[in-house]
Write a structure and sequence with these properties.
Order of helices and strands: EHEHEHEEHEHHHEHEHEHEHHHH
Distance between the termini: 39 Å
Number of strands: 10
Oligomer: single chain
Helix content: 25-40%
Largest sheet: 8 strands, parallel
CATH architecture: Alpha-Beta Barrel
Number of domains: 1
CATH superfamily: Aldolase class I
Radius of gyration: 19 Å
Length: 357
């Protein structure tokens, strides 16, 4: 039987100490220029100390046009390097592995922050979004690659490309709207091209010990479950990835689309992995939940809410098979004791109905 405490070997880079990853959680704690704050540093380092095998940053924007919210971490220029280097060094000292999630908001960016129209595969005036030229698509690919190189220079063990939740790379996958005719839209082969070029570019530009992950949405945002499964199958077979991180929202949920049997997780755990790992995320709130994910065939579990409520959820879940998160909502002082900063607490209070008392 696979154990949550088992180490994980990846095609590239160091082993992970166990099967828990910190999910990339929006926390709005960075400075306005995207540089790392002490609160964001301390939030992440506490999770490294708390036993997570992989500690991942929030979505970090790879270009100014991709910034989606105030307080977002940046990895778009060398001005971001000092804070990122400090964070990578602090995480390494805890024994965890480290990763930066690379992100571009696309039509979901905030033009008030960038001072320019949003970039998108198609024109969408309601989102102040303008269709990217082919040259701008190439520039976007280069921005992701440059950000990965910057993460490697900073000392992180790897990066995760954010291809989920309807952000820019996921927008290219949207069959409803992306009908570009320049090789980046229309057929699935063309809609997946931008994502493939990002992954191949990062693998070619980084060293043999640098880890590359990808987060995908299984369905929604213009992606049907059959296409979501096919994209996952292709990237696992592509030879670039160390792991695929499936954001399921709820690991126990059934597909939303009609005509699909079973649980959503089952549509991905049976895919050939070609040496890469498969992770799942969504409402894992106890040691039993995490073990269930491994029993379904996942290699690791990404944890979000539980890691907010307990900086040491990973260590506790490994030590106690009956461990589960504290009851919600929780007082602000409890979150402060878990190294959740004031800006993050305010964000949680505004956007999560049942987390902050």
């Amino acid at each position: 039987m696979t154990s949550l405490a088992d180490r994980l070997s990846l095609p590239h880079g160091p082993e992970w100490p166990n099967r828990f990853a910190l999910a990339p959680l929006t926390n709005t704690q960075s400075h306005d220029d995207g540089t790392l704050s002490d609160d964001e540093h301390d939030w992440l380092v506490a999770r490294g100390r708390g036993g997570f095998g992989l500690t991942m940053t929030c979505a970090a924007y790879v270009a100014p046009a991709g910034q989606a919210w105030r307080g977002q971490l940046g990895i778009a220029s060398d001005a971001h390097l000092p804070g990122l280097t400090r964070l990578a060094e602090s995480l390494r000292a805890t024994g965890t592995r480290s990763s930066v999630q690379l992100h571009h908001g696309g039509r979901r960016a905030d033009p008030a922050l960038s001072g320019r129209p949003n970039q998108c595969p198609w024109d969408e005036p309601d989102k102040d979004a303008v269709a990217m030229t082919t040259a701008e698509v190439h520039e976007m690919v280069a921005d992701f690659v440059a950000a990965a190189v910057r993460a490697e220079r900073a000392g992180f063990d790897g990066v995760e490309v954010h291809g989920a939740h309807g952000y820019l790379l996921g927008q290219f996958l949207d069959a409803r709207h992306n009908q570009r005719t320049d090789g980046y839209g229309g057929s699935l082969d063309d809609r997946v091209r931008a994502l493939t070029e990002v992954l191949e570019g990062i693998r070619a530009a980084t060293g043999p010990d640098f880890q590359l992950g990808l987060r995908l949405t299984p369905e929604g945002n213009g992606i049907t479950l059959p296409e979501g499964r096919e994209v996952a199958r292709r990237v696992l077979a592509g030879g670039t990835l160390d792991y695929l991180d499936m954001s399921l929202w709820d690991v126990f949920m059934r597909p939303r689309g009609a005509g699909h049997d079973g649980l959503l997780i089952e549509h991905f755990t049976d895919l050939p992995r070609h040496g890469a790992l498969l992770g799942v995320a969504g409402r894992v709130l106890s040691a039993a939940d995490a073990r269930w994910c491994l029993e379904q065939g996942a290699d690791f579990v990404s944890v979000g809410t539980a890691a907010i409520l307990h900086h040491d959820f990973a260590a506790q879940a490994i030590a106690d098979p009956d461990f589960q998160v504290r009851s919600r909502p929780v007082p602000r002082d409890v979150l402060r004791d878990e190294h959740v900063g004031p800006a993050f607490i305010d964000y949680l209070a505004a956007g999560w109905d049942d987390l902050v008392a």
